[in-house]
Every structure is written in structure tokens, then in C-alpha cells.
Amino acid sequence: MTSAASTATDRSDFRTVMIAGTKTGALIALAVVVFLAATRVLGPGGGAARALVQALVVLAAATAAAFLPAHWAVPRTTEGVAGSAAIGLWGTIVFSVIDIALFRPLRAYPWTWDAVGGGGTWWYLPIWWMLGTYLAWLGGMLWATRQARGEMSVGRAALPVVAGAIVLAAVAMLARLGVLLPVAAGGGFAITLTGLAVAGIARKG
């Protein structure tokens, strides 16, 4: 029975990391397609409706990047958390391949995206690799700390994080910080996830 339980959790083997990471990267690429499509369909005149749709897509993509690796790795210990992070890292690499092979040739992004890096297309890759790994790592830690208290699912793990992201995004908008709603939603997600993961570790310790 112990052996069966161990094989059902803390999955960090090569096959799991490769398959789960590929799925994660493909889903993030799909989210980018949805984001770009919504942006073009709603147009510059979309106003609040366009910003809201973009923010929802960002939150959905962030949820996938943070918690799908944990869903597949089922972390309970450090090994499983490391497996979640590895899945997240491979997912970012898979997305990078899709981005370079498909999105870039189709000129899917506005010129301002590349202008951030002085006109280069490679500046964001290491940042994206670190961000994707970071989200998956924190998602794995949060999953592991809560797994001990009962059954876990992506929905249960993501609900408080998404709620916190919405609150922080609303505060940013009301405070007129000059941040776009999708950016505020993504930042709020990362901040809330970090806080909950650290709090979970503190309680466990």
C-alpha cells in the first residue's frame, strides 16, 4: 500500500516531466492565441470590455502555469515540488519553441514588445523561463502543504490565488497606478501565490 501511494505522488521522473511540460507549454501557447484574438476582435475601441477579457485570459494562463504542473506531479515532499518546477521549466521551453517557430514569423505581437529589448526578440526568453519555473515551483509548494490536509484539485488550489489577484488588481485600478488591468491581474496573481506559498511553509514549519 505504501508503494502504491508513493507512485501516485511526487512524480518527478523524466517521462512525466517531458509529457506534462509539453502539455503545459501547449496550453500556454493556446492562451496566447486567445489573448491575441480577443485583442484584435475587440479592437482599440473595446475599452473596459477588452481589458477585462484580457485579464481573464491572463488569470487562466497563470492558473495553468502554476497549478497544472502540480496536478501532474502530485507533490507531497521536496521531490514532488522539484518535479513541479521541472515541468514548469520544460513547459516554458516548449512554449518558446512554438513562439519562435510560429508566433514570431506571423508577427503576432506588437512592435512595442520587442522594443523593450532594443528591437531584439531574445530578451524575454530567460525572464519567461524563470517566471514559468517560479510559478510552477510555488504552485507545487502550495499544493504539497495543502495536500496533507485533504484532497487537492486545480480549482481548490487556484481559487484563493485568483481571488487575491482580483482584489489586488482592483486596488491597483482604483489607486490609478497607471498599470493596465491584465498586467495588474498577472502581478496580483504572482504576489498572492507567493504570499500563500510562504505562509503555508511557515505553518508547516
Number of strands: 0
Tell me the overall shape: globular
The mean pLDDT is: 90
In whole angstroms, the N-to-C terminal distance is 28 Å
| SSE succession | HHHHHHHH
Structural class: mainly alpha
List low-pLDDT spans.
1-6
Question: Strand share of the residues?
Answer: under 5%
Please indicate the count of domains: 1
- Tell me the Rg in angstroms: 18 Å
Helical proportion, percent range = over 70%
Count of discrete alpha- or pi-helical segments spanning 4 or more residues: 8
The largest β sheet comes out as: none
Task: Give a written overview of the molecule.
This protein is mainly α and 205 residues long. It contains 8 helices and no strands. The protein has one domain (2-204). The chain has helices spanning 2-8, 14-42, 47-73, 78-103, 111-115, 124-147, 154-174, 181-204. The longest helix has 29 residues, at 14-42.
Secondary structure topology:
Layout: H1 2-8, H2 14-42, H3 47-73, H4 78-103, H5 111-115, H6 124-147, H7 154-174, H8 181-204
Helix pairs in contact: 2-3, 2-4, 3-4, 3-6, 3-7, 3-8, 4-6, 6-8, 7-8
Summary?
This protein is 80% helix and 0% strand. It has 205 residues and is mainly alpha-helical. The protein has one domain.
